[in-house]
Design a protein that fits this description.
- By secondary structure, this protein is α/β, with parallel strands linked by helices.
- The chain has two domains: 7-252, TIM Barrel, CATH 3.20.20.70; 260-331, Type Iii Antifreeze Protein Isoform Hplc 12 (Alpha-Beta Complex), CATH 3.90.1210.
- It has twelve helices and 13 strands.
- The strands form three sheets. The protein has an eight-stranded parallel barrel with strand order 1-2-3-4-5-6-7-8, surrounded by seven helices.
Length: 332
């Protein structure tokens, strides 16, 4: 991760289930989450899905009108950084009304819409682009097309497969994005029933260089609202964000030198030489006169004792039985 700061996007996708009441409850809960951004998905289903699409009916049920979104944006702007993700051109034009107050994400439904991409780069301060579903050659073409706008663009990788399994992900794409001079992000869609997978996939993305992490939130997973599979409950989401912002960096140390704590461990767990009997001044050091015990203090270990015996070292002064033997007790 280096010196780059991790930033978290809390996503309200479809977990409101089309309920304004549920949505408002979610917004209140999100206040406890230490995320940097909140993301809203906006769509007009008639502009998004054909009636033949298997998603048409389910999306129609959860569609919220633009007049609702206008109130939400006006009420919440300034409280958290807002990202809007329009899934059709009509919703994009609506989103552009708030270009001075929000950021934009180009969804996988529109990432080949050159008009929208170019217009977004012109009008918004920051643009997130979902590159999932693109072959590498297409991603490289996209990178080349917008190379003069690198500072504005964050390329996001991650797709919803209800849930997305680790073996289906191309997380190494993140390295290639960064190599080309762009910022990269990861949208996690793992099954949050298995938190280990969620944390591991996120950690892997961060290790590869992702500095933006996006994750769904739902009021209660057990209600099984849309997108619940890859969503975290608010408390779990808070812990997830807190862990990666505050604790995970401790696991990314590149330390080469042994730490003070590790030396303390060695002294406590390691065995050191202790006298088996009273030893007289000028008496030679011999193995049969010592034993090795955990002492909690630094003494001479087995290798160091072997060195002093080879040197035919002797005791400088009287050593009492059960005394920790140190180097300054011996002379050659």
């Amino acid at each position: 991760m280096g010196k780059n700061k991790l930033e978290f996007i809390t996503e309200i996708a479809s977990t409101h289930g089309g309920s304004v009441r549920e949505f408002n409850k979610l917004i209140k809960k999100i206040k406890i989450i230490e995320g940097d951004y909140i993301k809203f998905q906006i769509f007009d289903n008639s502009e998004l899905c054909h009636q033949s699409s298997k998603l048409y009916k389910s999306l129609k049920k959860i569609e919220l009108p633009l007049i609702f979104w206008e109130k939400v944006i006006k009420k919440n702007k300034g409280k958290k950084n807002i990202i809007l993700e329009p899934f059709d051109e009509k919703s994009y034009v609506f989103s552009k009304k708030f270009k001075n107050d929000v950021l934009i994400k180009i969804s996988s439904s529109e990432h080949d819409n050159d008009w929208m991409l170019i217009d977004a780069i012109k009008n918004f301060k920051k643009i997130f682009i979902n590159i999932s579903g693109y072959h590498l050659k297409d991603i490289l073409k996209l990178l080349n097309k917008f190379k003069n706008s690198k500072k504005k663009i964050i390329l996001m990788y991650g797709f919803q497969s209800f849930p997305s399994n680790p073996e289906d992900l191309r997380l190494n794409i993140i390295k290639k994005i960064i190599k080309n001079g762009y910022k990269a992000g990861y949208a996690d869609h793992s099954d949050t029933k298995n938190l280990a997978n969620t944390y591991l996939s996120t950690a892997k993305a961060i290790d590869l260089g992702a500095t933006f992490i996006e994750k769904h939130v739902t009021l209660n997973r057990s209600d099984k609202k849309p997108d619940y599979i890859s969503s975290l409950n608010p408390t779990d989401h808070f812990q997830y964000v807190s862990f990666f912002k505050d604790d995970y960096k401790k696991f990314q140390t590149t330390r080469d030198q042994i730490s003070k704590k590790e030396l303390e461990y060695c002294n406590i767990m390691g065995k050191h030489a202790v006298s088996r009997r009273d030893l007289k001044p000028n008496e030679n050091l011999k193995y049969e006169d010592i034993k090795f015990l955990r002492t909690g203090k630094k003494g001479l270990n087995r290798h160091e004792i072997s060195f002093f015996i080879k040197k035919k070292s002797f005791f400088r002064k009287k050593i009492k039985k059960n005394l920790l033997i140190k180097a300054n007790h011996l002379s050659n």
